[in-house]
Amino acid sequence: MKLAKWISAAAVAVLLSSGSVALAQGKGHGKGHDKKGNDDDQDAQFYKDHDREVIGGWYDEHRDQLPPGLAKKDRLPPGLEKQLVRRGTLPPGLQKRLQPCPEDLERRLPPPPPDCAHVVIGGHLVLLNRRTNVIVDIFHFESR
What we know:
Blueprint: H1 2-24, H2 49-61, H3 78-81, H4 92-95, E1 99-100, H5 103-108, E2 116-121, E3 124-129, E4 134-140
Antiparallel strand pairs: 1-2, 2-3, 3-4
């Protein structure tokens, strides 16, 4: 009788210990996880598909009278263009070339998050965190 209890207790212990290993899987610090175990949302975009359609439509409507920052003459050289990436920091040389977002386009866009603003630079609409100069999201007009 005592042997049966010991065997049962050992079986329960084995099952409980293997269950905790299975629950711990996927909680590492590998690809897609930060140190806190949260999923990395690096691909998250502020401008949704609908917003991108609205932005593209606005650009098509105003193609003949584009404001500063969006006109063809305001395009960036390829080396600077590569530096405009989501989650990247706006280079100091480009901070001087920022233009405000046109009012009629601004009205069509979702309101920016706190400390952020919609700006245009070198043929791009940029959602920029003004406090940290981090590019939250970007829309490339010329890639349409």
